[in-house]
Predict the 3D structure of the following.
Amino acid sequence: MNAETKPSRLRDTRITMAHGGGGRAMRDLIEEVFTDVFRPDSDEDQARLSAEALREPGARLAFTTDSFVVTPLEFPGGDIGKLAVCGTVNDLAVGGAQPLWLSAAFIIEEGTEIAQLKRIVASMAREAAIAGVRIVTGDTKVVGRGSGDGVFITTSGVGVIPPGRDMAARHIRPGDVALVNGVLGDHGATILAARGDLALSSPLQSDCQSLNGLIEAVLAAAPGTRAARDATRGGLASCLNEMAMSAGVTVALDEAALPLRPEVRGMCEILGLDPLYLANEGTLVLFVPEDQAGAALAAMHATEAGRDACLIGRAVEKGTIPVTLRTAFGGTRIVDMLVGEQLPRIC
Amino acid sequence: MNAETKPSRLRDTRITMAHGGGGRAMRDLIEEVFTDVFRPDSDEDQARLSAEALREPGARLAFTTDSFVVTPLEFPGGDIGKLAVCGTVNDLAVGGAQPLWLSAAFIIEEGTEIAQLKRIVASMAREAAIAGVRIVTGDTKVVGRGSGDGVFITTSGVGVIPPGRDMAARHIRPGDVALVNGVLGDHGATILAARGDLALSSPLQSDCQSLNGLIEAVLAAAPGTRAARDATRGGLASCLNEMAMSAGVTVALDEAALPLRPEVRGMCEILGLDPLYLANEGTLVLFVPEDQAGAALAAMHATEAGRDACLIGRAVEKGTIPVTLRTAFGGTRIVDMLVGEQLPRIC
């Protein structure tokens, strides 16, 4: 019998404070909603993992964490659960780590529909299988109505960086080219449309996806890859500013080369938003030596997640401005970090 | 110049949505409030750790996570930050792991005082130093007023279980004795009094403390120790029920042996609460073979955290009831798991 056909032990259809109290109601919730799906190895609170991959001399352990507070909880192309898996998988992968194990901690607002929670958890299990990671430990807390917002999920991830691999923004050199795996801003634009405040109907989907497979393909083809980041909150602009400042270079972008869907471009024009600051959840930014750019692009084009990969600019000697953009009209403008907030709670 | 005397780069005294937006305000907040205190090794998002201790054949990696949603955020004997460090350190330690690295993810409600956030972060850094762990990676999200409750913190922890060490509730055998390191219910009673709804004034303090040092001392003195747990949410009663069911034994407690402060006993009598269900945050439950009980108790008595350690009962052949209590009047009663909630948001 699988979890869907098993009769429910839960007496409620919505979360109550008792589901966080440490007693029987909590145990029933955890068993039915979480452990029946994630199937941990034991009933101990902690995961105990045999770390063969870490035994190799020079291998390092990578460890990262992210809380997810996106609203709405479900949106075209994903939901908070898929996002929580992809986000932490990608944080590990952009540092060169092979993601292995995830933890998942849930802060659930009283009144949340248990059926919705089950959909979110099923989505996490699906995405974990796609990314090849295991969700090995977790926690559940319940807060009263008005002290939370449906569900917040914090995932942490552990992975292994193979010996000799050292990707970091500080390794970027003048002359390196900047690549992205696909179109920009889909996630931010999708969330904006999904909130429904704007009476926009849109065919957009979040780009939310795990990037670890794509990154391994790039590293096999272009082993000299200097650095990778996923351009999430703050968009491509904030991501490139951080990388440029870390490396002590200027990044010169070419506006004509930036891949944007007409729908995203249109939405930004209507709302006065800049797509360079829209959040992405499956957008990879890579810096590679120029002589490996072709190999890296070819490797990306061979994958679903990298089908629309392209070159968007290059690193040059450090000027006074970390990131510049050559506009379609031939001028140059500053691409600053996001100041304030363009759109809150997109992840 | 240390973090306290450095002039603040933050223009606000309270958290705004911009502090979670992924741009400059967020970067300033993270630098001033978090990285100036936790001092990670690099500006990359992920921690990269040399895992020497994991290289030993037979060593296992332990991984655990917990969200903390306690209210109030600060209380006698601790605060949400200290709790978030102790809780995860203890989750690792009770499984026999030596805690090494922690992540910390913050979900902060708009309007939270930055000064309070700084106190909480300073408290985390202090407790991490006491426990001998490093906070190596983190995340910050901001939610609007009414979508959170001040600060929620999720800590995850990675540790190493030395070769040959295997503590788990399923190893408990009939005849083993049950020990605790000190008085019961202080944390739950303290939170209850601190909420102020009850017009109770109390000299109580939370027992919130890191137990890894105590556990290592016990394991050195009583290497046959079968299992350890910290009796948190759901109190001693729920913890012992879980252990008894895992092991397939009955645990027989002796009421006269249960260590309780007169203040906690009094508060429970007034409010009709059962101290066996009150939460603890530094209370260790151990099962050891009878012939090592003396050594384990002596090792605990030699430490500050184990000064009041005592024997509270023993495992017997499995009966129909997982946990029983011989009362002071000579009768026996069932000690069930907590049903519903005794007190929410105590951790």
In short: Helices of chain A lie at 24-38, 80-94, 114-131, 186-194, 212-221, 235-247, 262-271, 293-301. The domain at 17-45+52-161 of chain A is CATH 3.30.1330.10 (60s Ribosomal Protein L30; Chain: A;).
